[in-house]
Design brief:
The chain is of the alpha/beta class and 554 residues long. It is built from 18 helices and 15 strands. Strands 2-1-4-5-6-7 form a six-stranded antiparallel sheet. Strands 8-12-13-3-14-15 form a six-stranded mixed sheet, sandwiched between helices. Strands 9-10-11 form a three-stranded antiparallel sheet. Strand 1 and strand 2 form a beta hairpin.
């Protein structure tokens, strides 16, 4: 629930703090004081459309901030986790800034977010009901959710949605498979030709580099043999060879070491060098003897290199890419060869999924039909007490021409607000105040089901009074049990039932209109309720009547 709403430079609101509590919160005040502007600011905070027109004249920007207690709201926690955020000790700070040039920005706990994210979070926190175009009651999806929640149909509705997604996925996969098969069939001969060309070459990884090294060795065989044997002679067999000099030097050092033992290590180094050079010389001799003079092998290598280079130009540019292309072509040919079997398997899965969807959709339709009658009766029983005497409420089922994620039918709430008039869609037959009272009736019916923590009603009391006002007040008090309700009202009876009474008052600052909000207690609340009763607010009779309505609350 909301703990506090902070509004700065928004229309006539200069610097406003609206403290809120659990239960029924009432916002009253003279006409034009700015009560509905508070609701407008809240709607913008929750991702509503913002324009530069809301910025107070002479200011650069407007700011709306809300402090929200989200303890126990698992759905909010899951959404925050999805967004990579978390609440700070079960508390969220939502913020929206609107600049005079029209741009807006949003934050959640200091992290910048889009208006869309604010809307997603707001949809789990607040319902705003009043004369606004975005009222959820006019949404077909919301009407369906209300009916399914009332009828206990959400489980089977979820199965229908999931079943539709599965059938759609299977149809898309089957269509993609058929398209892929047609595409592969159109070039099957070309695939087989290319695959045969690559596989026929019997390539292996790094073969091009191996051939390059071998070809270079064969091309320079005479030089390699001659030079390696010359080095063998220089190191070991020639007169005054390196090994002879090393042996002589080591022997002389060994004799000197008899006089100075510190030279023994150098003698050992030369002896090691002698053995290493001797080994190198022997290896060079073996290498020289092993050099092949094979022009035929060199020619074969040149032919093989030419073949690989041709394949690289067509399928490369690297040998690894040529080999990879062969694997890809092999895979495409396998796709084509198994397409019929894959299509048959998908077709069987699709038939089973469609049958399961049909079964669930029929069960959902049955449950909805049964729930529709009960919901209509429950709502109509409440209507008279809310000033909708003679009003009728019903649920219209419009058969869909094709399966959908919502089931076999489209749900539409129908109503007639006046006797003798045929029912029509709520958006066409209900005024703003009537629409709010219809929502109030539904919220009363759903009070044990709907877990949305905060409801806001603006103009719910339009055009009513007397016992109807008392009934509306009772309904609002009932709906506020276990949740937070904010009501903008002109009715003293509604105000008297509030657990928290706030008043909006208009004044002036530096020659410009400004509104403030105060929480009323004690005699101040008595006087405000007396004012709302009409007549002389300061008279003893009005004050006594106010105290009676408050019933000892103050």
């Amino acid at each position: 629930m909301f703990v506090e709403l902070i509004i700065r430079n928004f229309a006539v609101l200069k610097d406003l703090r609206v403290p809120l509590k659990a239960g029924l919160n009432v916002l009253s005040g003279e006409t034009g004081a700015g009560k509905s502007i508070v609701v407008d600011a809240l709607a913008i905070l929750l991702g509503g459309r913002a324009s530069s027109g809301v910025v107070r004249s002479g200011e650069a920007r407007a700011l709306v901030e809300g402090v929200v207690d989200v303890g126990g709201l698992d759905a909010v926690g899951e959404l925050l986790a999805e967004l990579g955020m978390e609440a700070d000790e079960d508390q969220l700070v939502l913020r929206r800034e609107i600049r005079a040039e029209g741009r807006s920005r949003g934050w959640v706990n200091g992290s910048p977010v889009t208006a869309g994210v604010l809307r997603r979070i707001g949809s789990l926190l607040v319902d705003i009901h009043g004369q606004h175009e975005h009222q959820r009651l006019l949404s077909g999806d919301f009407q369906q959710q209300v009916l399914d929640a009332f009828g206990g149909c959400t489980g089977v509705a979820d199965r229908v949605t999931e079943g539709f997604r599965r059938t759609t996925d299977l149809r898309n996969r089957l269509a993609a498979l058929e398209e892929r098969r047609r595409e592969l069939e159109s070039r099957a001969d070309f695939i087989r030709f290319q695959l045969g060309e690559i596989l026929g070459a019997e390539l292996h990884a790094d073969e091009d580099e191996e051939l390059r090294v071998e070809a270079t060795r064969l091309a320079h065989a005479d030089q390699l043999a001659r030079e390696s044997y010359a080095l063998h002679e220089l190191l070991h067999t020639a007169e005054d060879a390196v090994t002879d000099r090393l042996a002589d030097s080591a022997a002389r050092l060994r004799r000197l070491a008899e006089t100075d033992p510190s030279l023994a290590a150098h003698a050992s180094t030369l002896e090691d060098a002698y053995h290493q050079v001797s080994d190198a010389a022997a290896q060079l001799a073996d290498y020289s003897a092993g050099i092949e003079h094979d022009p035929v092998r060199l020619e074969n290598i040149r032919d093989r290199q030419a073949l690989i280079q041709r394949l690289q130009r067509k399928y490369g540019p690297t040998l690894a890419e040529v080999i990879g292309r062969g694997e890809s072509l092999r895979g495409e040919l396998h796709e084509l060869e198994t397409a019929d079997m894959d299509a048959g398997s998908l077709q069987n899965d699709l038939q089973r999924a469609e049958a399961a969807w049909q079964t669930d959709a029929e069960e959902l339709s049955r449950q909805r039909e049964e729930a529709a009658g009960r919901l209509s009766g429950a709502a109509e029983a409440i209507f008279p007490g809310l000033g909708l005497e003679g009003g009728r409420f019903g649920v219209h089922f419009e058969e869909q021409s094709a399966p959908s994620a919502k089931g076999r039918e489209r749900i539409r709430f129908m109503a007639s607000m006046n006797p003798g008039f045929p029912p029509g869609p709520l958006s066409q037959v209900a005024s703003g105040g009537e629409l709010s009272r219809v929502m109030l009736a539904l919220k009363s019916v759903l009070s044990d089901i709907d877990d949305l923590p905060t409801l806001v009603f603006d103009e719910v009391d339009a055009g009513i009074g007397g016992m109807v006002a008392a009934n509306v007040a009772d309904r609002l008090a009932q709906v506020s049990r276990g949740r937070q309700v904010l009501v903008v009202t002109h009715l003293a009876r509604v105000a008297a039932r509030a657990s928290s009474h706030l008043v909006v008052e208009k004044g002036a600052m530096d020659g410009a209109a400004v509104s403030v909000v105060r929480r009323l207690e004690g005699d101040e609340r008595v006087h405000e309720v007396a004012r709302m009763l009409g007549g002389d607010a300061g008279s003893g009779a009005s004050l006594e009547h106010a105290r009676e309505l408050l019933g000892g609350v103050v």
